[in-house]
Design goal:
Elements: H1 2-12, E1 23-25, E2 42-44, E3 47-49, E4 53-55, H2 63-79, H3 89-93, H4 95-100, E5 106-110, H5 115-125, E6 129-134, H6 136-141, H7 152-162, E7 167-171, H8 178-186, E8 191-193, H9 202-209, H10 224-231, E9 239-243, H11 249-257, E10 262-265, H12 267-276, H13 278-298, H14 304-307, E11 311-313
Parallel strand pairs: 4-10, 5-6, 6-7, 7-8, 8-9, 9-10
Antiparallel strand pairs: 1-11, 2-3
Length: about 325
C-alpha cells in the first residue's frame, strides 16, 4: 500500500519549474557537423552505455508495482537504455516480489538495511550495479520509517569492502553536498546519484501520509542544479549521475553540461506509462534519443565530453 501511495501522490504533483530553468546552454547558429557524427554514448561504472539517460528506480513490491517494473524493464530492453529497478526491500519479505525483481541488472537497497542483509540480496540478484539509497529525511517523516541511523555509515563502509560490484550511492530527492560526495570517493564507490529536490519530494509525500505532518521539513536539501554545481568539482574522481525533476532532453543536456555522465528519469516516464501505455513510452524515449543529438549539434558537441561547461547561469 505504501508503494502505491508513493506513485499516486507523486503523479499528482504537476510542478513545471525546476532549478535547471535558471541555466541556458550554448547555442550556435552555424552547426559544424551532421547527425551521423554525434556520439551519445557515455561510460558509467566502467560500462559503456549507448545513451546518457536511463529509467531510474521508481517502485517495487505488490502485484501492481511489480507489473509496472516489468513493463519498464521491457521498454528499456527495446530502447537499449539502462533500467534500475525500485527498492529490493519488499523482496526481503516476500518470495513473490523476489521473483519479479530483474536478475543480473541492478539492485536498489537502502542503507537502513543491515550490511549482511544487503550482501545476501546482492548474492541473490547478481547485479551489474548496486544502488545504495539514502533517505534519512523521508525515514524520519514516514509513519513506517526506520530510525536506526546510527548503523548507516557502518553499513556503507562494510558493503563497500565486501563486494566487487560497482556501488552507486543514490540520494532520493534531497540532493547531495560536498561532504557526502567526498565520503563516497574515500570509500572508493563507483558513482553518486545526486538526486536533487526538483523531482518527487518524499518529505511532502510522507507528510501527506502522516497524522502529524511537518511541512517545513519539505524545504530541506539541495536542488538538482545546486547539487551538480557541487558535484562537478569531483567529476574526475567519481562518476556523477544526475536525477531529480528531469522533464525533457534539454534537461538531460543541461545536466551533462554541468558535469553529469548520465541522467536518471522517473516521474515523467512513469506518467506516460500509466496514462498512455507502453507503446507511447517507447515512442517518447526514442524521440528523446533523437532530440539529444539535435541539441548536441546546436552546441557543436560531437560527444558527451564536449558538452561540459557549454552552459551558463542566467
Amino acid at each position: 500500500m505504501r508503494k502505491k501511495d508513493h506513485i499516486n501522490i507523486a503523479l499528482k504533483d504537476k510542478t513545471t519549474k525546476t532549478s535547471l530553468d535558471n541555466y541556458r546552454i550554448d547555442y550556435n547558429s552555424i552547426p559544424y557537423f551532421g547527425i551521423s557524427e554525434v556520439d551519445t554514448s557515455t561510460t558509467i561504472c566502467n560500462q559503456k552505455w549507448q545513451y546518457p539517460f536511463f529509467i531510474n528506480a521508481i517502485t517495487s513490491g505488490g502485484e501492481e508495482c511489480n507489473f509496472i517494473n516489468k513493463q519498464l524493464e521491457e521498454v528499456c530492453e527495446i530502447c537499449n537504455i539502462e533500467f534500475f529497478a525500485g527498492s529490493y526491500s519488499p523482496a526481503l519479505k516476500n518470495e513473490e516480489d523476489k521473483k519479479c525483481y530483474p536478475k543480473n541488472k541492478s539492485i536498489n537497497i537502502g542503507l537502513d538495511k543491515n550490511y549482511s542483509t544487503v550482501l545476501k540480496a546482492i548474492e541473490e540478484v547478481n547485479p551489474k550495479y548496486i544502488q545504495l539509497h539514502t533517505n534519512p529525511l523521508q525515514e524520519m517523516i514516514m509513519p513506517e520509517g526506520d530510525k536506526n541511523f546510527e548503523n548507516w555509515l557502518n553499513n556503507l563502509k562494510v558493503i563497500s569492502t565486501k563486494t566487487q560490484v560497482p556501488i552507486i550511492l543514490k540520494e532520493t530527492g534531497f540532493g547531495m553536498n560536498n561532504k557526502t560526495i567526498e565520503l563516497a570517493i574515500k570509500l572508493n564507490l563507483a558513482a553518486v546519484d545526486i538526486s536533487g529536490k526538483d523531482g518527487t519530494n518524499f518529505a511532502k509525500i510522507e507528510n501527506s501520509r502522516t497524522k502529524n505532518p511537518s511541512p517545513y521539513l519539505e524545504e530541506i536539501g539541495y536542488t538538482t542544479a545546486e547539487s551538480l554545481e557541487i558535484a562537478k568539482n569531483y567529476k574526475n574522481k567519481i562518476d556523477i549521475i544526475a536525477s531529480g525533476g528531469i522533464r525533457n532532453p534539454l534537461d538531460v543536456i543541461k545536466c551533462l553540461a554541468l558535469g553529469a555522465k548520465a541522467v536518471g528519469i522517473s516521474r515523467v516516464f512513469l506518467d506516460i506509462l500509466i496514462n498512455k501505455g507502453k507503446e507511447e513510452l517507447i515512442a517518447e524515449i526514442k524521440k528523446w534519443q533523437e532530440e539529444l543529438k539535435y541539441i548536441m549539434i546546436l552546441t557543436n558537441s560531437k560527444n558527451i565530453k564536449e558538452l561540459e561547461n557549454k552552459i551558463r547561469k542566467i
